[in-house]
Write a structure and sequence with these properties.
Layout lengths: L3 E8 L2 E8 L7 H27 L6 H13 L3 E2 L2 E2 L6 H4 L20
Antiparallel strand pairs: 1-2, 3-4
C-alpha cells in the first residue's frame, strides 16, 4: 500500500496529477462494529417500513400523506425518490402514520396537532 494519494486538479494548463503524502490509520474495532450495527439496523428498519407500506399496515390519512409528500418534494435534502437525511424512500416513509421527518418538518400522525 502506498503512502501517497494521487489527486487530479485543474490548473491553467489543464489537468495535472499531484501526489500528496497521506497517513494510513486504522479504525478501532469498536467503531467498525458500531458502524456495521448501525447500517444493519437502518436496513432492517427500511425493509420493515417498505413492507408495512406495501401491505397497507400503519397507513396515515390521505391528507397527511399529501402534505408530507409536498413537504418532501420541496425539501433541499431530497435526493430523487429518497430522503437525503435518512435514506428512506419518500413514497413509503410518507405513507406510514408512525414515521416522522428526520429534519423535524413533519411528525408521526399520532403526535400531530
Amino acid at each position: 500500500m502506498s503512502n501517497k494519494a494521487v489527486l487530479k486538479y485543474q490548473n491553467s494548463t489543464g489537468l495535472e496529477d499531484r501526489e500528496l503524502p497521506i497517513k494510513i490509520i486504522s479504525m478501532p474495532k469498536e467503531a467498525e462494529n458500531i458502524n456495521k450495527t448501525s447500517r444493519a439496523s437502518k436496513l432492517l428498519k427500511g425493509a420493515k417500513g417498505i413492507a408495512k407500506s406495501t401491505l397497507g399496515i400503519d397507513i396515515a390519512g390521505k391528507d397527511t400523506i399529501k402534505i408530507r409528500r409536498q413537504i418532501c418534494e420541496d425539501c433541499d435534502k431530497r435526493k430523487d425518490k429518497r430522503c437525503g437525511a435518512c435514506g428512506c424512500y419518500i413514497v413509503h416513509k410518507t405513507r406510514l402514520a408512525s414515521e416522522s421527518c428526520p429534519n423535524g418538518y413533519w411528525v408521526a400522525e399520532d403526535n400531530e396537532l
